[in-house]
Amino acid sequence: MKKNSGPILSKDGVSYVLPFILITSCFALWGFANDITNPMVKAFSKIFRMSVTEGTLVQVAFYGGYFAMAFPAAMFIRKYTYKAGILLGLGLYALGAFLFFPAKMTGSYYPFLLAYFILTCGLSFLETSSNPYILSMGTEETATRRLNLAQAFNPIGSLLGMYVAMNFIQAKLHPMDTEDRMSMSTAQYEALKEADLNTLITPYLVIGLIILVMLIIIGATKMPDNGEQSKEIHFIPTLKRLFANHHYREGVIAQFFYVGAQIMCWTFIIQYGTHLFVSQGMEEKAAEVLSQKYNIVAMIIFCISRFVCTFILKYLNPGLLLKILAIAACFFTLCVVFLQNIWGLYSLVAISACMSLMFPTIYGIALKGLGDDAKFGAAGLIMAILGGSVLPPVQAVIIDMQTVLGMPAVNVSFVLPLICFIVIIIYGQRSYRRDLRAAG
Question: Is residue 193 within 8 Å of 107, Cβ to Cβ?
Answer without folding.
Answer: yes
